[in-house]
Amino acid sequence: MSPASYLTAPPRVAANSIAACRYDRGVSAVLWSAVAFCVFVVSATLVGLALLAWRGWRQFKALRAGVLAALDELMESVAAVERRLGGVESRSVELQTAIAQLSRSLAQARVLVGAAREVGDLVGRVRGVVPSK
What we know:
By secondary structure, this protein is an all-alpha fold. It is built from 3 helices and no strands. It has a domain at 25-101. Helix content is 89%, strand content 0%.
């Protein structure tokens, strides 16, 4: 053998320890128990994730139903406001005509009051000219 092969070759006493190594059933049981534990952890995690996904989907459906109900209520409120606004617009037109009629009536009343004062002043002047008993 070359000197380099002595550095890479296993020692002479290693042959006995390597040959003594054989298949051990205890290692196999430990290995199988580790694999079983790993499978258990993975399956438990998948079941937990499935349950969380199912709960999340139920909560999403409940939230969606609540949002749709609130949206329906909002639409009903908007429709009611639109109806009331239509009523306000018609009443506003009626109010404007009533205000215009009231303005004309007040103008006529001012004219009549002015005329009544003029008649009263005229009657007062006539009474002043006519001798009283």
